[in-house]
Amino acid sequence: MIVLGILEPIENVLTDILEWLHTSVGLTWAWAIVALTVAVRIVILPLTIKQIRSMQRLQQYAPELKALQQKYKNDKQRMNEEVMKFYREHKVNPAASCLPILPQIPIFISLFYVLRDFEKEVFPQFPQSELGFLNNLVPDITQHINEHWSGWLLLVVYVLSQLFSLMLSTTAIQSKGQRYVLLALPFVFIPFIINFPVGLMIYWVTTNLWTVGQGIVTRRLYPRPTLEPSKKSSRTPAKQPAEAKPAAKSPKPARAAVPEKAAPAPADGTAPQRPVRRRKKKGPRSRR
Amino acid sequence: MRHLAVGLVRLYRVTLGLLFAGRCKYHPSCSQYAIDALEEYGVVRGSVLSLWRLLRCNPWSHGGVDHVHDQRLFRSHEARPAGRTRRST
User: Fold this and answer.
1) Count of domains in chain A?
2) What pLDDT, on the 0 to 100 scale, is given for residue B39?
3) Would you give the DSSP letter of residue A194?
């Protein structure tokens, strides 16, 4: 009840936007929902780009993080804290921030109510308007998902798009268990979702597809540094004991790894490596 | 009231939290932080702390480990001498 009261202004705004998209822009209701979704995502686009970039930057630190995880394998709590500390030290953090999620929640819930009462409250004011979608493949977006086969089709599209977007957003450092839980989610939601209005599903599918497209585009634009060079650089210079210690403690090996990619020539044997490492500890940047 | 607030956060965690499926950049996550804060500081100050945390959890922050008992906005319960009223804090 309280929630409904709070969300009412948002519902009104969303209704107004939908009506405006419908009457002034001339979109059908379904496309109006798509447009609304895209607008929301465009607003938060700068935030998402930032997140994706830092996710990719993390790739550089993958070996060290692996070492950290190995070290605290038996203590999840401690491992989390250490990993977080590591992120902080290196000013990189692949995880999403909570703030950008915040505005999406009321919009999502309000849209749910708007679409639920659409038939009663909005539609009667626009008697001739079309409720179908994609040449009437979906005859009525206010219907529940389980009322028509197109709803089920949308459900499949939803699950696929959700899986895709989750796969794009999971990071290398997440454990397998976590990843499986995430991937199981869309299926867990199915029993609840089938009673949702189709219009809401359109919102959801759109937002997922947007995420997927975004992931693909950013991967093109900023290709991930491939794992191979960083593996090589962390393996070739170090005899095993030497590698284990700095990886857990300090940022140095990562910095060492980057320049070695740029200038791979000098390090062939084991002999020259000790001086190289010492130099880096003292002050890598000033010397170069 | 406190239980209601904590309940709401827990409800979020099992429904929408999963749905939006992000991982928070802080440890403990924002929702866990909110639960801790509400339980430790009550609805009003707990909410303030949670909101402040949410604001900090933006794309320009670096995240990290951040427990409720490390907060410095309110005087912690242990530190406050018995008998003092809230107003004095």
Assistant:
1) 1
2) 92
3) T
Distance CA B58, CA A284 (A): 31
Is residue A52 one of the residues assigned to a domain? no
Q: Of the candidates A97, A53, A62, A55, which has an alpha carbon nearest to the alpha carbon of residue B25?
A: A97
**C-beta neighbour count of A272 within 10 angstroms:** 11
Question: Could you tell me what percent of chain B has a pLDDT over 70?
Answer: 75
Chain A residues near residue B35 by CB distance under 8 angstroms? none
- B28 cis-preceded (ω within 30 degrees of 0): yes
| DSSP state for residue A282 in the 8-state scheme | H
Calpha distance A106→A189 (Å, rounded)? 19
Residues of B with Cβ-Cβ distance to A79 under 8 angstroms: none
Q: Which of A93, A95, A99 faces B54 most closely, judged by CB atoms? A: A99
List all residues 6 or more positions away from A203 whose beta carbon is below 8 Å from its beta carbon: A33, A34, A36, A37, A108, A111
Closest residue in B to A183 (Cα–Cα)? B21
The whole-number pLDDT of residue A2 equals: 54
What per-residue confidence (pLDDT) applies to A51? 72
A98/B18 touch (CB, cutoff 8 Å), yes or no: no
- pTM across the whole model: 0.63
* Residues of A in Cβ contact (< 8 Å) with B64: 84-85, 87-88, 93
Q: Which residues of B touch A50 (CB under 8 A)?
A: 59-60
Instruction: Give the chain A residue nearest B26 (alpha carbons).
Output: A84
| DSSP E strands, chain A | none
Tell me which residue range forms the domain holding A115. Answer: 2-44+100-221
Positions of chain A with pLDDT under 50: 1, 172-173, 227-288
Burial class (CB within 10 angstroms; exposed 0-12, middle 13-18, buried 19+) of A119:
middle
> Nearest Cα to B49, choosing from B31, B62, B65, B24?
B31
Range in A70-84, A183-197, B54-68, B69-83 the model is least confident about: B69-83
- Whether residue A51 contacts residue A115, with contact meaning beta carbons closer than 8 Å, is answered with no
pLDDT value at residue B45:
92
